[in-house]
């Protein structure tokens, strides 16, 4: 598999999920996807929130011999008790109050395809046992039924938790872990694949332009530096949200730094910073002053250093009452 954007469709004509990058970390994951997709083994995806675990799972499905079958994502964090059994294994009419008709459940709905058990580390211990039984028998018994239904499904699980540590602490069953973790793919956080940030940012800009049917917008050089220097605790998902906001808040063709959310501009992580955080206005004022000093008071040069237009610099100088002594 080559780095960069892959072709838009599989041989079967299905649209592929975008997976972009050129970093060594991207290449490593991309190669792993191609290798494991051709097999039938269970896969566990490990990565922080927002790294794109579901995108990777869909990518594996699209490259597999199951690509023409269904892909069914399941959020395990929302499952508990009877809801878990009913949603995963289905139920028959009258099995419990509110069961007005038969349902397939996620596993039977994914028959012939792939099921993603997202946030699998959130499952309660009693539910882990029920999931393990399915993996051992490849059959489901709907709630309220006695008949067993065979299911042919590939299982991909995903988590942002340290499952090995949970196994050691006995909060996650070792036998279930070994069933799910035949092959493990670790997805690196965005801060460890800096080369991919601008590729992804431009991709998200293109999606916004297409969504609104508008000419494309681009990032100023200063905005690019800000994006590259930020730690991205929310990873690719956070980057997508930041670019969407910046696109919406910018009327012009070039996105300047003032369109970015405050936490990105200041460089502070959403997980909290140990140092005192200055207000956005303080940061902007200091940036303008530093640029004017570096440009020896010349506004044209300062605007170029900041990556903004001359007109915007003048507006900012007026806003922050920076005197008329500058040229």
Strand % is 5-15%
How many strand segments? 9
CATH class of the largest domain: Alpha Beta
Integer tally of domains: 2
Largest sheet: 5 strands, parallel
CATH superfamily of the largest domain: P-loop containing nucleotide triphosphate hydrolases
Name of the CATH architecture of the largest domain? 3-Layer(aba) Sandwich
Explain this structure:
The model is unreliable at 1-17 and 268-275 (pLDDT under 50). The chain has a five-stranded parallel sheet with strand order 2-3-6-1-7. It has two domains: 24-188, Rossmann fold (3-Layer(aba) Sandwich); 193-319, Helicase, Ruva Protein, domain 3 (Orthogonal Bundle). It has helices at 24-37, 53-63, 81-89, 106-109, 125-137, 163-168, 174-180, 197-212, 221-229, 235-249, 262-266, 280-294, 299-306, 310-319; strands at residues 43-46, 71-75, 114-118, 139-140, 149-150, 154-159, 183-186, 218-219, 254-255. It is built from 14 helices and nine strands. Strand 4 (139-140) and strand 5 (149-150) form a beta hairpin. It has 327 residues and is α/β, with parallel strands linked by helices.
């Amino acid at each position: 598999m080559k780095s960069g954007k892959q072709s838009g469709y599989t041989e079967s004509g299905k649209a592929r999920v975008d997976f972009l990058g050129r970093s060594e970390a991207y290449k490593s994951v991309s190669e792993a996807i191609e290798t494991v997709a051709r097999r039938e083994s269970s896969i566990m995806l490990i990565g922080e929130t927002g790294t794109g675990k579901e995108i990777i799972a869909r990518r594996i499905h699209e490259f597999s011999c199951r690509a023409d079958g269904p892909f069914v994502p399941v959020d395990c964090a929302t499952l508990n008790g009877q809801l878990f059994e009913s949603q995963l294994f289905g139920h028959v009419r009258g099995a419990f109050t509110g069961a007005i008709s038969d349902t397939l459940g996620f596993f039977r709905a994914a028959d012939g395809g792939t099921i993603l058990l997202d946030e699998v580390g959130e499952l309660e211990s009693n539910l882990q046992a029920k999931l393990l039984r399915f993996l051992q028998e490849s059959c489901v018994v709907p709630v309220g039924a006695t008949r067993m239904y065979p299911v042919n499904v590939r299982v991909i699980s995903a988590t942002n938790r340290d499952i090995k540590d949970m196994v050691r602490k006995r909060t996650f069953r070792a036998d279930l872990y070994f069933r799910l973790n035949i092959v493990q793919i670790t997805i690196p956080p965005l801060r460890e694949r800096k080369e991919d940030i601008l590729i992804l940012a431009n991709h998200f800009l293109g999606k916004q332009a297409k969504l609104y049917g508008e000419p494309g917008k681009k990032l100023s050089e200063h905005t690019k530096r800000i994006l590259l220097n930020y730690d991205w605790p929310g990873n690719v998902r956070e980057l997508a949200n930041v670019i969407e906001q910046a696109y919406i808040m910018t009327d012009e063709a070039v996105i300047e730094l003032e369109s970015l959310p405050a936490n990105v501009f200041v460089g502070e992580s959403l997980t909290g910073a140990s140092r005192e955080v200055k207000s956005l206005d303080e940061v902007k004022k200091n940036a303008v002053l530093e640029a004017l000093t570096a440009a020896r008071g010349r506004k044209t040069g300062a605007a170029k250093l900041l990556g903004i237009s001359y007109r915007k610099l003048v507006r900012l100088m007026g806003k922050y009452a920076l005197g008329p002594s500058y040229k």
